[in-house]
Amino acid sequence: MSVDENYTRVSEFVIVGFPSLQPEYFVLVAWFFFFLYVTTAVGNLLLVVMFTLERSLHEPMYIVMVSLALSDIGFATVALPKLIARYWWNDGSLGFHTCFFQMHMIHYFGSLNSLILLTMALDRYLAICFPLRYPTMMTNQTMAGLTLFCWGIAHIFPGISTISFTLMPFCGPNKIIHAFCDTMSLKSLVCVDTSRQYSLAFASAMFILYVPLAFIIFSYICIVISVLRMAKGQGRMKTFSTCATQGCIISIYYIPRFFVYVTPFIPNLTMTPDKRIATTIFYSLFPPVINPFIYCLRTKEIKQIFRRWLQKRKGVMPTKHGQIVAVTMSN
């Protein structure tokens, strides 16, 4: 389908956010998203700083945790500041290329998180199912290489979609009924038929999201079988508790995404803009907020580091035998 060559090219887009939200709630919503951003940034930065300072954490499991923390900080930094500005100062405008950059990074960090969860599942699978071979199979260098590979390859599928949409004509309305620029919100603003481009973007999203999910499910099944065969008592319950907790986070990440993506393809199944935005925000921002607590604060080594740091601040030092000794200061 062709378009009139005399059309006026859109120079900027406007983030609308929740279309049904009344103005008297704008400031409250802005504070809510500001709190989410600060909590996400502080919680995940704390993990990064702890990993940098504590050599005892320089292990494969913590390398992938830090990778997830940096990805979560990146997503929140790309998605939230403009949304906060939209509700705090009524400034939702984004330049044409800035919007496409945001779209690319939104989908990039979504793809990256999927690959990081895959890497994390692989690490746990090898550690539990092959405990004797794990130290040689998964070294720090191997995990660092896998992490860098994930950060690089995650650009491919979002990049194809971004380039495809950048070359399309935008000649009509410029209001984005969403919390940020993404493929679904921009396709409705294109002047020509986007079914081919959207189908390609949809197929890419399904591949990058659900191929890793298939391996994650497989790895957890193997872990459960291995634990039932080998672990006893408290160790078994601890492993099941960890798997259940991570399974909840993985479910929050994947299941709502699936419904948002497939809704346009299912007849008689509709989702209002407000519900779609709320669902997207939930699965995009809830995991980054709680990931530091789920993956890190439940870990024995990190809790011991926190306890040692707090004892130092209070002037209390642990002895070799685990006893606590107060440190006195003299002038």
TrEMBL record:
GO terms for cellular component: plasma membrane. The keyword Metal-binding does not apply. The chain crosses the membrane at residues 25-49, 61-85, 105-122, 143-165, 207-228, 240-260, 280-298. Residues 43-295 form the G-protein coupled receptors family 1 profile domain. Its main location: membrane. It holds the Pfam family 7tm_4. It is found in: Cell membrane. It comes from the Eukaryota. PROSITE patterns: G_PROTEIN_RECEP_F1_1, G_PROTEIN_RECEP_F1_2. It is a multi-pass membrane protein. Keywords: Cell membrane, Disulfide bond, G-protein coupled receptor, Glycoprotein, Membrane, Olfaction, Receptor, Sensory transduction, Transducer, Transmembrane, Transmembrane helix. GO terms for molecular function: G protein-coupled receptor activity; olfactory receptor activity. PANTHER family: G-PROTEIN COUPLED RECEPTOR, OLFACTORY RECEPTOR. Belongs to the G-protein coupled receptor 1 family. This is Olfactory receptor. The lineage of its organism: Eukaryota, Metazoa, Chordata, Craniata, Vertebrata.
